[in-house]
Amino acid sequence: MSLAHGYAVHDQTAPLVPFSFERRAAGPDDVRIEILFSGICHSDLHQARDDWGGAKFPMVPGHEIIGRVTEVGANVTGFKVGDFAGVGCMVDSCRHCAACDEDLEQYCEKGATYTYNSTERDSGQPTFGGYSDHIVVEQRFVVKVSETLDLKAAAPLLCAGITTYSPLRHWKVGPGQKVGVIGLGGLGHMGVKFAKAMGATVVMITTTPEKGADAKRLGADEVLVSRDPAQMKAHAGSFDFLLNTIPVSHDTNPYMSLLKRDATMCLVGVLTELDPPLMGASVMFGRKHITGSAIGGMAETQEMMDFCAEHNIVSDVEVIDIKTVNEAWERMAKNDVRYRFVIDMATLEKAA
Amino acid sequence: MSLAHGYAVHDQTAPLVPFSFERRAAGPDDVRIEILFSGICHSDLHQARDDWGGAKFPMVPGHEIIGRVTEVGANVTGFKVGDFAGVGCMVDSCRHCAACDEDLEQYCEKGATYTYNSTERDSGQPTFGGYSDHIVVEQRFVVKVSETLDLKAAAPLLCAGITTYSPLRHWKVGPGQKVGVIGLGGLGHMGVKFAKAMGATVVMITTTPEKGADAKRLGADEVLVSRDPAQMKAHAGSFDFLLNTIPVSHDTNPYMSLLKRDATMCLVGVLTELDPPLMGASVMFGRKHITGSAIGGMAETQEMMDFCAEHNIVSDVEVIDIKTVNEAWERMAKNDVRYRFVIDMATLEKAA
């Protein structure tokens, strides 16, 4: 056991405050990581406010973790002390079901163990996330981070990155395709970068015309303002794939009209109701698909980190002092961030 | 031009009444068909009541037509006088777009011309459907009907049949798969027959336990009562494909939980809102798909008719006298039909 320091919320209306807790000792398959940077994901706020139910308090959020390895167990083969390492949304799974066997731990049939707001499979202890100084994670759930990446800007790859990379790969986005990324936030800005790096023609679809210039800077070939009926009509029936990153309930029907026959829109942001409701006609005429995707498996997360190193892709981040984390959450709730806050964990003052 | 006799509704609250109108002369590519049987589809009622908007009155419904060829144009190669022929939901399309080129006229990019409640492409005249004594249709939109089929019971194949056959083929349903058919009505009972004939293990999913015995008679291997939480839990995550034939708004989320990872539920009945709304989580956890399918192309409709002749598949029908058609509509609205009404057109009294 080791004493960890971080920030936690103690109930669903409370701010983040300093918090100390125990981490388990590193077992033979574990990697101990000193956390250098921890990204702030919109889902941190959803979970702290118990928007999805099942919140466990105290809660130490954070699942976009970049750090340095400080200890490895006897069976650990892929990491050594001093390596840079990343931890994302999961820290364990059953490892024996069909999904785990196919390296799709995120769809573990017994349910994955999440990095925070979850329960360790062996000990039954709560999991605590990356808004803290160190973490102990089984090696399967740790990825290698290239030294060539800007570490602070690499932190959001562990959630925003893999969440957008995985569906673009699964639905085989590539050259000759017209791909739309809906919503320009933490997920959307990564979707644009990845889809462009994969060779597609990328259209940023946004309600906010002001984001157009930035979308093009990120790599978008074109910008479609979804509130403009003339623009929507001009693009009707033209998209091979849509990556929908909107994190709140919204009307999906206008976006379905943008798809070609037999094409797919994938949801990665919204877990709750699609309201106003989807119309049957929106999928029936043109045999269109609406689907969703959750993060990615560990092998694919490593593939994504390597793809980022190869293509020099990181997130656009605003680095903050952990003492300002509550203000950052307030700004994130208003979409006032381009495009991801990352906590510099060196700013954490450790209690005696 | 030729005088046709049939039944029409004259406004969205009116009953069907006798109606006479002109059919076009048979052009060089046309087939003239004496209508023997005309199926009654639930969408006849939807359109007559203007549930989907755009109703044109007077309206002669009917798009499940079986008849005998009485005249062929000079260019007609596939039909001769005396042949049995079928006409379904479409009588024309642009014939030049990508969809038409792929024999998917139902997804014609210019919009297909429907058998009734639509407008002829050349003349601009309204189209009138199968609740009538004869019809004139371009040869591409007419299918051959085997003499071995029970003609009255073959009529519903032209809509209920192709609507269920096409998605089962498109999503490659076959041996080794567990397929669910949701809703036991005109579409659902055909879905069970086709999925079984294609070699799948078929589960009838219904809210009505009383329909269980009949579902098994139709070919279902098992019956799942969707209102029983224990049964739903026992089948969770086990289906390779779901064919959802429910024709009205309903909660799709419980059905999504029945699908395996990466599996698809296809809507063929409901055009309107899915209310209560679909949850993002219902597709995201397991990368599940919700899609839809509309009837089928003409080549596939012919393939389906041939498949039916080969496997001796027809609909379960209740044949009626056209003078009782309004009562049949009332019963259909209450799901009081097993499983399709078919009008015997010999009962039509022709006005002088």
Query: How many distinct domains of chain A?
Result: 2
Strand content of chain A: 25-35%
Largest interface: A-B, 37 and 37 residues
CATH class designation of the largest domain in chain A: Alpha Beta
Kindly name the structural category of chain A.
Answer: alpha/beta
Strand runs of chain A, count: 17
Instruction: Determine the mean pLDDT of chain A.
Output: 96
Largest sheet of chain A: 7 strands, mixed
Flag low-confidence runs of chain A.
none
Q: What shape does the CA trace of chain A take?
A: globular
H and E string of chain A: EEEHEEEHEEEHHEHEHEHEHEHEHEHE
So, the CATH homologous superfamily of the largest domain in chain A?
Medium-chain alcohol dehydrogenases, catalytic domain
Whole-number radius of gyration of chain A? 20 Å
> Which fold name is given in CATH as the topology of the largest domain in chain A?
Quinone Oxidoreductase, Chain A, domain 1
Q: What is the chains' assembly state? A: homodimer
Helix share, percent of chain A: 10-25%
Number of helices of chain A: 11
What CATH architecture of the largest domain in chain A would you give? Alpha-Beta Complex
Question: What is the end-to-end distance of chain A?
Answer: 17 Å
